[in-house]
Amino acid sequence: MERLSNPLWSALTGAQQHLAQVVGDMRRYAPDVAPFCAVPEDGMFVRATDLEYLTEDAYFLGAIPAVPDGWTMTELGGVLQMVYRGGAVAKPSAAGVVELDALDPAMQELTALAFPGYFRARTGIMGRYVGIHDGGKLVALSGERMDLGDLREVSAVCTHPDYTGRGYAKLLVQHIMHGMQQQGVTPMLHVGAKNERAIALYEALGFERNGVLRHTWLQVPQRS
């Protein structure tokens, strides 16, 4: 699907346009929601007068713009996109699984251990998030991020290092997938192309590889 080759643009001009900020030809989430920007076409030139509206570094996925001199775009490695192609997801056990408040700061604290900088103070408003606690401490998490309407991204799959190997990630992802299917939505996700352990888990859950997307980091120049 063409929409999946540029998922951020598809989300920000579709089901999540209410979260979109318009910056010239670009669309972006508010920085406290997610650090992502999007352009309509890969390779399009973005004017410096538009980029100057960015107040902090941003990330692009799939469609990568060309930027003017003075701006630094860094390749971060390929991101594998996967789409669920299995059948109905059985309702998983609810034991220990709780719905999380969209603004729970513990989500940002936990995800900072695995992928610092991507989960922001208000990322939780992008979808539904579920977690597992131990003694009041959030130790595992999964939720929803990009929304393309009939496709929605499973995201923030994270387990505290002291609690790995207990099946928490699989259980929480199944909760998110089941909830999506109940709404008639197909789950999809993004994972580092070299993260073989995570890829194996997702393939076992019924996800199939849909291609590798470029992922870049745009650094905002120091301003005097």
Descriptive account of the structure:
With 224 residues, the protein is α+β, with helices and mostly antiparallel strands. 20% of the residues lie in helices and 32% in strands. A seven-stranded mixed β-sheet has the order 7-8-9-10-11-6-12. Strands 1-2-3 form a three-stranded antiparallel β-sheet. A three-stranded antiparallel β-sheet has the order 4-13-5, with no helix packed on it.
Stretches with pLDDT under 50, minimum 5 residues: none
Biggest pleated sheet: 7 strands, mixed
What is the count of β-strands?
13
Strand order of the largest sheet: 7-8-9-10-11-6-12
Annotation field: number of helices: 6
User: What share of the residues does DSSP label as strand, in percent?
Assistant: 25-35%
What general form does the structure show? globular
Give the SSE layout.
Elements (H helix, E strand, L loop, with lengths): L1 H4 L1 H6 L7 E4 L2 E4 L7 E2 L9 H4 L6 E4 L10 E4 L3 E6 L12 E3 L5 H7 L17 E6 L2 E11 L3 E9 L8 H15 L3 E7 L3 H9 L2 E7 L1 E5 L5
Task: Please provide a brief summary of the model.
The chain is α+β, with helices and mostly antiparallel strands. The protein is 20% helix and 32% strand. It starts with a helix and ends in a 5-residue tail after the last strand.
Main attributes of the structure:
224 residues; three-stranded antiparallel β-sheet; 32% strand; single chain; globular; alpha+beta
